[in-house]
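Hi V.,

Quick status before I head out on leave. The structure for the redesign project is tokenized and pasted below; the design run finished overnight.
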């Protein structure tokens, strides 16, 4: 039996590298089984995999890499993240959500607040301390999303299920 499918937006190396380094430095090591990532959907049912693959291929063929911006350090309550803003990514996510509306979990039905988690499941005091440490030196960064990805969740590290480079004309 297959677990849920997670859909992410790929991060370019200039964003992934520093974000992953922050995650390795600040995420509780016993819980850190993933690299830095930007989740679009947390749990799509495996029964839609074929249709999801076809949709992702179509989106990749018809959409250019969307512009994005690391905009600020944000609190997750018991964690810390880098906020990501992107109208183009929001549009792509909306297309996917619309196609699979009847299959979305409650978590995936909400309008997303895109972010890259660098710390989670710590005390609120530790989270605030990291936010205070990182905020003074934080510089917003513009980048583009190079691809959409899908992963299988099977209880531990994710297994890549597919990658679709965005190459369309917009």
């Amino acid at each position: 039996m297959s677990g849920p499918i997670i859909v992410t937006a790929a991060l370019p190396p200039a964003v992934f590298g520093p974000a992953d380094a922050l995650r390795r430095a600040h995420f509780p090591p016993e819980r850190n089984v993933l690299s830095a990532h930007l989740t679009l959907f947390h749990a799509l049912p495996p029964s839609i995999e074929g249709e999801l693959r076809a949709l992702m291929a179509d989106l990749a063929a018809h959409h250019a890499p969307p512009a994005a911006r690391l905009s600020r350090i944000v609190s997750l309550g018991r964690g810390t993240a880098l906020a990501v803003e992107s109208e183009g990514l929001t549009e792509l996510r909306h297309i996917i959500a619309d196609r699979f509306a009847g299959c979305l979990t409650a978590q995936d039905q909400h309008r997303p607040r895109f972010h890259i988690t660098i710390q989670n499941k710590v005390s609120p005091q530790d989270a605030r301390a990291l936010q205070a440490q990182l905020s003074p030196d934080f510089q917003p960064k513009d980048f583009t999303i190079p691809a959409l990805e899908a992963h299988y969740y099977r209880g531990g590290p994710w297994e890549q299920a597919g990658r679709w480079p965005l190459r369309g004309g917009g």
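Above is the designed sequence. DSSP finds five helices and eight strands in the chain.

G. will cover questions while I'm gone.

Best,
W.
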